[in-house]
Amino acid sequence: MTDDVTDEMSSSLPEPVESAPLTEKLEAILLILEEPLGLVALAAAVGAPVPAVRQAIETLVDDYDGRGAGPRRGFELREVGGGWRLYVREDHDGLVAEFVGGQAPARLSQAALETLAVIAYKQPVTRGQVASIRAVNVDSVVRTLLARGLITELFADSETGAINYGTTDALLQNLGINSLDELPPISPLLDDGSNGFEESSIR
After folding, report:
1. 165-186: per-residue pLDDT in tens?
2. Most CB contacts within 10 A, which of 9, 40, 79, 93?
3. pLDDT digits (tens, 9 = 90+) for 152-161
4. Using CA atoms, how far apart are residues 17 and 120, in angstroms rounded to an integer?
5. What is each CA distance from 69 to 61, 65, 82, in whole angstroms?
6. Which of 183, 193, 173, 177 lies closest to 119, judged by CA?
7. What pLDDT does 187 receive?
8. Dihedral sign computed on CA atoms, order 154, 157, 160, 164
9. For 163, phi and psi rounded to 5 degrees?
């Protein structure tokens, strides 16, 4: 009797993650990626051989493009800079931009303002470079600025696949300027430039 109850309870439990289809595991990882991830890294993430991951990626691409059993999706799985990541399908860029632009405006946090300033003055710049300059993690702040339409992805580094960011026309409109050339010079806001440099680096 006890064994029957145990068997019934076991059958009602969800299957362990290890038994999930490879495509399902890949989707879970791809959904949270901020930058393209290569096949080897994806294979390590899901614990599967690279050839199997490559085949699963091809299956997902076909599925999202409507070549599988389901309809074409509003997003696509695209290879950029040697890595894979989910993107909004180009057909819907205008729709997404309009939606983001129509969201209720809210004040940016100090962290967002500082990150935005770094991108504005240093663009094109990667998230890693921004984090290095600010000495803090900027992942969530970059997502916020992207959602507000104040920055955009310019291109992916051909070697590392890291996304380079830049500002948008929406930022210019919010600042009331016509071009980045009208940004105030940053040098008067800094010290004489000697701090933080080793003597050997300025010879």
Report:
1. 999 988 888 787 888 888 888 6
2. 79
3. 999 988 888 8
4. 43
5. 12, 10, 28
6. 183
7. 55
8. negative
9. -75, 135
pLDDT at 77: 93
The structure tokens 């890291």 sit at 162
Q: Mean pLDDT of residues grouped by 10 in the chain (203 residues)? A: 51 53 94 88 95 96 90 91 87 81 70 91 92 89 89 89 90 82 69 41 35
Pairwise CA distance, residues 176 & 46, whole Å? 47
CA dihedral 94, 96, 97, 102 (to 10 degrees): 120
Angle between the N-to-C axes of helices 139-147 and 110-122, in degrees from 0 to 180, rounded to the nearest 10: 80
Q: How far is CA 159 from CA 121, 124, 155, in A?
A: 24, 16, 12
